[in-house]
Amino acid sequence: MGTKKLHPSVEKFKAFTKTHPLILKEVRGGKKSLQDFFEEWYILGEDDPVWEKYAAEGSETKEKTGGRSSWLNQLGAMLENLDPAQVQGHLQHLTEAITAVQNVITQFTGGQTPQSQAPQPKGPFSFRKD
Q1: Could you tell me the superkingdom of the organism this chain comes from (predicted)?
Q2: What is the DSSP letter of 32?
Q3: pLDDT in tens, 55-105
Q4: Which of 41, 52, 79, 114 is deepest in the core (most CB within 10 A)?
Q5: Pure H helices in 1-130
Q6: Taking residues 110-114, what's their average pLDDT?
Q7: Which one, of 63, 64, 61, 65, lies nearest residue 25 by Cα?
Q8: Cα–Cα distances in Å, from 126 out to 76, 117, 123, 130?
Q9: SS3 27
Q10: What is the pTM of this model?
């Protein structure tokens, strides 16, 4: 079976709808038919201000899906607002809490650390002499 080649104006309209995703959203919602949009596009042209509202949401969805860069921007703004002295204080409190937990564990284990029976080799490789 051979595939039919679309008319050049239909191919242009197809490319236009990819840059204006709200058109297809309204068609799927049943508000307007694709034929109606095509006729308006054919008469008004691509540069008519009518089409701005159909492209606006498309750029918003790109920002939402490309959230990685916006997330990094938010992180950068948050880091700019941090007070180094306050961060240092929080780290000091965290260190003290970890030390206290280590002391409690040492008390419960009787101050003994588990020791292995075999001596540890001095170098990175364990060789025996023949």
Answers
A1: Bacteria
A2: S
A3: 855 444 444 445 567 778 888 877 887 888 888 999 999 999 999 999 999
A4: 41
A5: 8-19, 21-28, 34-44, 52-65, 67-80, 84-108
A6: 65
A7: 61
A8: 49, 16, 7, 13
A9: helix
A10: 0.41
